[in-house]
């Protein structure tokens, strides 16, 4: 899985609301059937925060929840719409009706 894929998965996991790292990875596992490795997960979180697509919330103990910023929501929507167009085109090319 590439870094951009990990970042998109993290943004998708956060679309329903704030989560901490373990909960993000659990949501990703429910979505894809696989967990991200710690380096991929926390690397994606650091990159997304540096791009101001997510922001930390006050956490308790070791848990540090993060949430999407308004910019993060915009970027996620744009990325998902682009992915949907590619998927639709690929399915049509295969002779399969897109959902």
Please give a structural write-up:
- The structure is a single chain.
- The protein is mainly alpha-helical and 99 residues long.
- It has a single domain (3-93), classed as Winged helix-like DNA-binding domain superfamily/Winged helix DNA-binding domain (Arc Repressor Mutant, subunit A, Orthogonal Bundle), CATH 1.10.10.10.
- The protein contains four helices and two strands, in the order αααββα.
- It has helices spanning 3-14, 21-32, 38-50, 70-93; strands at residues 54-56, 66-68.
- Strands 1-2 form a two-stranded antiparallel sheet.
- The relative contact order is 0.16.
List the helices and strands and how they pair.
Layout lengths: L2 H12 L6 H12 L5 H13 L3 E3 L9 E3 L1 H24 L6
Helix pairs in contact: 1-2, 1-3
Brief rundown of the structure:
Helix 1 packs across helix 2.
Question: Features of this protein?
Answer:
4 helices, mainly alpha, single chain, Arc Repressor Mutant, subunit A, two-stranded antiparallel ribbon, 6% strand, 2 strands, 99 residues
Specify the structural class. Answer: mainly alpha
Q: At the first level of CATH, what is the class?
A: Mainly Alpha
Give me the side-by-side strand order of the main sheet.
Answer: 1-2
Our measurement of the CA-to-CA distance between the termini, rounded to an integer number of angstroms, reads 25 Å
Rg on CA atoms, Å? 15 Å
- Count of alpha/pi helices: 4
Beta content = 5-15%
Shape: elongated
How many independent structural domains?
Answer: 1
Residue windows where pLDDT falls under 50 for at least 5 positions: none
Beta strand count: 2
Biggest sheet architecture: 2 strands, antiparallel
Question: What is the annotated CATH architecture?
Answer: Orthogonal Bundle
- From the 3D structure, determine the CATH topology: Arc Repressor Mutant, subunit A
Secondary-structure element order, as H and E?
Answer: HHHEEH
Helical percent range? 55-70%
**CATH homology group:** Winged helix-like DNA-binding domain superfamily/Winged helix DNA-binding domain
Average of pLDDT: 91
């Amino acid at each position: 899985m590439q870094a951009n894929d990990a970042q998109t998965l993290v943004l998708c996991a956060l679309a329903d609301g704030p989560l901490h790292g373990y909960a993000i990875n659990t949501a990703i596992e429910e979505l894809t059937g696989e967990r991200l490795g710690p380096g991929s997960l926390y690397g994606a979180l650091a990159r997304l925060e540096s791009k101001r697509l997510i922001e930390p919330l006050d956490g308790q103990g070791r848990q540090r929840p993060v949430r999407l910023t308004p910019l993060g929501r915009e970027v996620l929507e744009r990325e998902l719409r682009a992915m949907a167009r590619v998927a639709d085109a690929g399915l049509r090319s295969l002779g399969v009706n897109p959902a």
